[in-house]
Specification:
Number of domains of chain A: 2
CATH architecture of the largest domain in chain A: Alpha-Beta Barrel
Low-confidence stretches of chain B: 1-16
Structural class of chain B: alpha/beta
Radius of gyration of chain B: 23 Å
Helix content of chain A: 25-40%
Low-confidence stretches of chain A: none
CATH topology of the largest domain in chain A: TIM Barrel
Radius of gyration of chain A: 23 Å
Strand content of chain A: 15-25%
Mean pLDDT of chain B: 92
Shape of chain A: globular
Strand content of chain B: 15-25%
CATH class of the largest domain in chain A: Alpha Beta
Structural class of chain A: alpha/beta
Largest sheet of chain A: 10 strands, parallel
Helix content of chain B: 25-40%
Largest interface: A-B, 77 and 79 residues
Number of strands of chain A: 24
Largest sheet of chain B: 7 strands, mixed
Mean pLDDT of chain A: 95
Oligomer: heterodimer
Shape of chain B: globular
Number of helices of chain A: 19
Distance between the termini of chain B: 19 Å
Number of domains of chain B: 2
CATH class of the largest domain in chain B: Alpha Beta
CATH superfamily of the largest domain in chain A: Metal-dependent hydrolases
CATH architecture of the largest domain in chain B: 3-Layer(aba) Sandwich
Number of strands of chain B: 21
Strand order of the largest sheet of chain B: 4-3-19-18-17-5-6
CATH topology of the largest domain in chain B: Rossmann fold
Chain lengths: ~550, ~425
């Protein structure tokens, strides 16, 4: 069966195609060459005038695992608008700030996304994370293992263990937890909070282990590079949300000294201390150093006004933030000598100076960072806003006059303190396709995603070209996943189950002897029982396991 | 459903431990060594506890379904069960003593037949969910307590019958990561149950269940340094409580461990006070709470239902999905007669018959043991126990760790997930 998508206007940055009218041919799950005259086209779908892009990829969205589930459990008021729609999936409705697994999958697909990555999987919670992801339909998925506060690593660093030992430990973590990449959250800080340290700057020592965040960052980023992972170390740095953290972020980039790294939800790490309220935008300084540091990529973590819930491994910072919980409840947790988590419901208010400036800072980062291949569109779902706000965010990036209208509605002092009003840049469709498709796919080493080249997977989104970009991106005309239509006019028409992407670098298995000893001595379960098997990922045939073969050399 | 996992190809070393994971309480100890006996039951060789001794000693159920007391094959029994559910005005799926895959199947079936869901320990599970929904709290996990807590306050914890192995796992391990603290770890038991003969080193402050809420409130006041009149509270001297409050403030990491199941009807306010104390201690120092509970698959049921629906059980599927944490309690629905058909699940074999249900011919029971009055039941389908008769995944009491449990005997008994898939296909 060959399907021809006829006459669409194609935006495919991976192949340098910027708004050209092209036909796309699909056979099974792949994009194929135009068939020769002897080969029949079974179905032609006329999409003349429609905008065609690869399907979307979200490389940082909290959609599965312990803290996500705590948020769901805490917020029945979010789900309360329940409505069962029998004629289509989902069978039950829910709010968007902490959606149950099936709803997250459906909403992403309806928005034209087909791959989403949970960025903060604790190795001790890996089994639950993968069970939740397994129950998330419509999308491919994967998870990043969270390290950098685990007692095993901190002990190894205190003992000045060989970098090869750290590398092998990370290798084991990736295999055992079925992870695609490695993330670090507040390096050493979550551990320090367990010892009652209330802050930990880049060069402050963890009181018990004596190691600094700088040392942890360098050890992990070097190890990730030497394992040859496609995605560099995914860094949630020190001092999230702290005014003045722009200096920490710049020092972090400087400390990395050319080593590849991904700085996540950078909006929350771009704050200065200027002005009467000691809170200002550091976006320009961040953009300046990012623009001249080709080793750095980032996602923004844009905030949007309204209710959401913040969920983070960074319980040190969430503890401080709990003061502002709205409604007044929050959960903190110290977890299994592995890390921690904090879940704090929150409402971003346009009339709050701080929130309004956060909103502006995120947009400034988007507009001041030049290279769309190194910046990815995220709201750090749900920390900045639910992912369902992406179409609105895209409109803010593409439509200068809309942006200015919105700017005029926020706290006046924040609007005045921001450069946003003077930034004329408007993202093009080609750039949107880059930051939501091509660039995240490349960063994760998903070779068949984010691209409409011959031989790529047929993950395609077709939009009606509308001047209101929010409307346009909210409701694609068609979404193809693995060559089949899963969404028509923004509604699910076919329930599918995606694959899980994992990395399997080589490592010296000798490290496991030491891990056996460590688990038997200190942990409350055996090492082997933390391991998630391939069969669990395959989940009786509903799931699929994809081993990421990309290396850093591409 | 996932079948028995084969050893993974990508890891050189095979999973080949002598030890097995015990499914019979939510501690999920993974170091039990058991020996199979001629009647297909097990004797525990190492690391057991009195509860596990009893449960492992139970031979498997006869793999014989019954319809109204008459023998039937599994398929016919599933068809009969499906018919009962189809004809029900308000079906109730309760007990929910099963593993994660069993719960996934429960939710599929509930959605199909418009059922209400509740667990046999719904009252305690619901109280904890209520705490998360009303105030939250600062929590900790087993390995954190084992390695970090220099002070552990047990509140109404029954280490004699339930959670005996908590002592071995968390309170008195041979090794600890931060040994300088472990050496002087102080464990204080605030509660009514006697177990001092086995643990003379655990300090006891006797407090009846009835007096627990009041005592904790006084303790909170003392931790807050609030003025307090009176020299004795619920039989505990002010001096004793003051000394406890001081110890808690001075500790580097104070863990408050409690069992909601033993707290009676005041459990929600009692637990709330525990987290008030934890919050107070966290102003300047470090503290956290841990609930011991969620046995019989309770923790797995809550966690799975939450990621699938957003709600921690007590949901009703229908035109809308309704979460009613009080109205959808199984005991209430059975007593009022609102639920006219019951599917009761108990694959751990510890609570095979709900006392409240009178219309036995409208009851379907899936259990690892034959319930009382089995011949009067609409349908009885024997099932295997997770981690004994089939591979399973269960969520531990701290809700962080999910353990894999492997088959240790082959009996031909189906899993709950298998049976429910059979029923769903007919519904």
């Amino acid at each position: 069966m060959v399907i021809r998508l006829k006459g669409g206007t194609v935006f495919d940055p991976a192949n340098g195609i910027d708004g050209e009218m092209r036909d796309i041919y699909i056979q099974k799950d792949q994009i194929i060459k135009p068939p020769d005259q002897n080969q029949a086209v079974d179905e032609t779908i006329d999409i003349t005038g429609r905008v065609v892009m690869p399907a979307g990829i979200d490389l940082h969205t909290h959609i599965g695992g312990g803290k996500v589930n705590i948020a769901r459990m805490m917020l029945p008021e979010n789900h309360a608008a329940g409505r069962v729609t029998q004629d289509q999936h989902p069978h039950w409705e829910s709010g968007h700030i902490a959606p149950p697994a099936p709803i997250a999958g459906y909403r992403y697909a309806e928005m034209g996304y087909v791959a989403c990555f949970e960025p903060a999987m604790l190795p001790t919670n890996a089994r639950q994370t993968h069970m939740e992801l397994a129950d998330t339909p419509m999308i491919d998925k994967g998870a990043y293992a969270l390290l950098g506060n685990d007692d095993f690593l901190l002990r190894a660093l205190r003992q000045k263990r060989d970098p090869a030992f750290i590398r092998d430990y990370i290798g084991w973590i990736l295999h055992a937890s079925q992870a695609l990449a490695i993330k670090v959250v507040n390096p050493g800080g979550i551990s320090a909070f367990k010892f009652n340290q209330r802050q930990l700057d880049l060069d402050e020592r963890n009181a018990v282990y004596g190691v600094t965040p700088r040392k942890i960052l360098l050890a992990l980023s070097t190890a990730v590079e030497s394992l040859g992972l496609a995605h560099p170390l995914h860094i949630h740095g020190c001092n999230l949300g702290v005014p003045g953290n722009v200096n920490t972020t710049i020092s972090t980039i400087t400390a990395l000294d050319g080593i590849r790294a991904h700085l996540t939800h950078l909006q929350f790490h771009s704050y200065g201390t200027e002005g009467d309220r000691n809170f200002s935008s550091g976006a320009a300084e961040i953009a300046e150093i990012v623009n001249r540091s080709p080793n750095i990529s980032l996602d923004v973590g844009q905030i949007m006004f309204g209710r959401t819930v913040t969920e983070s491994g960074d319980v040190m910072q969430q503890f401080k933030g709990s003061e502002f919980a709205d409604p007044k409840k929050w959960v903190g947790m110290d977890i299994e000598c592995d890390a921690g988590c904090g879940v704090v419901p929150f409402r971003y208010k346009s009339r709050s100076f701080v929130n309004a400036l956060q909103w502006a800072i995120g947009l400034e980062l988007f507009l001041l960072i030049d290279d769309p291949w190194r910046i990815f569109l995220t709201t750090d779902h749900p920390n900045g806003a639910p992912f369902t706000s992406y179409p609105h965010l895209i409109r803010l990036l593409m439509d200068r006059s809309f942006r200015r209208d919105m700017l005029s509605t926020i706290h006046a002092d924040a609007a005045a303190a921001s450069h946003l009003g003077s930034l004329a840049r408007e993202y093009t469709l080609y750039e949107i396709a880059t930051i939501t498709r091509a660039a995240p796919a490349r960063s994760l080493g998903l070779t068949e995603f984010g691209s409409l080249g011959i031989g790529d997977k047929a993950h395609i989104t077709v939009y009606k070209d509308q001047p209101n970009r929010e409307k346009m991106f909210a409701k694609p005309e068609l979404v193809f996943k693995d060559g089949s239509i899963i969404v028509r006019k923004g509604r699910i028409v076919n329930e599918v189950w995606g694959a899980t992407h994992v990395a399997r670098p080589d490592y010296d298995r000798g490290v496991e002897r030491e891990l056996d000893r460590y688990f038997d001595r200190y942990m409350t379960l055996h090492k082997d029982n933390t391991r998630v098997t391939d069969d669990e990922i395959r989940d009786g045939g509903r799931g699929e396991l994809v081993i990421n073969e990309a290396t850093t050399s591409r | 459903m996932p079948s028995e996992p084969t050893p993974t190809k990508h890891l050189a070393e095979k999973i080949n431990r002598k030890a097995t994971v015990c499914p019979f309480c939510a501690l999920l100890c993974d170091d039990l060594e058991v020996r199979r006996l001629p009647d297909d039951s097990f004797a525990i060789q190492r690391n057991g506890c009195s509860r596990a001794d009893t449960d492992y000693a139970r031979p498997p159920a006869i793999p014989q379904p019954l319809i109204g007391g008459q023998k039937a094959d599994f398929e016919t029994a599933c068809i009969a069960a499906a018919r009962l559910l189809r004809n029900a005005k308000q079906p109730l799926i309760a007990g929910l003593g099963t593993d994660v895959d069993g719960m996934r199947a429960v939710i599929r079936l509930a959605e199909r037949c418009g059922a209400v869901l509740d667990h046999m320990h719904g009252e305690t599970l619901n109280a904890l969910a209520g705490i998360l929904q009303s105030r939250g709290g600062y929590f900790t996990t087993l390995s954190e307590i084992r390695n970090r807590a220099d002070l552990v306050l047990l509140v109404g914890v029954d280490l004699g019958d339930r959670y005996e192995n908590f002592v071995r796992l968390c309170l008195k391990p041979k090794f600890g990561l931060h040994t300088h603290r472990l050496k002087k770890r102080h464990v204080i038991d605030l509660g009514a149950r006697p177990f001092e003969s086995r643990h003379p080193d655990i300090e006891r402050i006797r407090c009846s269940t009835k007096n627990l809420p009041e005592t904790l409130n006084r303790l909170l006041a003392l931790v807050r340094d609030a003025p307090l009149s009176g020299s004795s509270f619920g039989g505990i001297s002010r001096k004793t409580l003051q000394a406890l409050a001081t110890k808690m403030h001075k500790s580097a990491y104070c863990a408050m461990v409690f069992t909601p199941a033993t707290m009676g009807n005041c459990r929600e306010t009692t637990v709330s006070t525990i987290f008030d104390i934890v919050d107070e201690l966290n102003r300047a120092g470090r503290a956290a709470g841990l609930a011991l509970g969620g046995d019989d698959g309770g923790q797995s049921a809550v966690v799975t239902c939450t990621w699938q629906t957003g709600y921690p059980l007590r949901v009703r599927f229908g035109e809308t999905i309704e979460y009613d944490p009080r109205g959808n309690a199984f005991g209430k629905l059975l007593a009022s007669g609102e639920a006219d058909t019951l599917l009761w699940i108990d694959s751990f074999g510890r609570n095979s018959s709900p006392r409240q249900f009178k219309k036995l011919d409208n009851a379907i029971v899936l259990s690892a043991v034959r319930p009382k009055h089995v011949d009067n039941l609409g349908v009885f389908i024997p099932v295997g126990t997770p981690g004994i008769d089939h591979y399973a995944r269960l969520v531990r009491t701290d809700s962080v760790v999910t353990l894999p449990l492997h088959t240790i005997r082959r009996t031909g008994l189906p899993s709950v997930a298998n049976v429910l898939a059979g029923i769903t296909a007919q519904t």
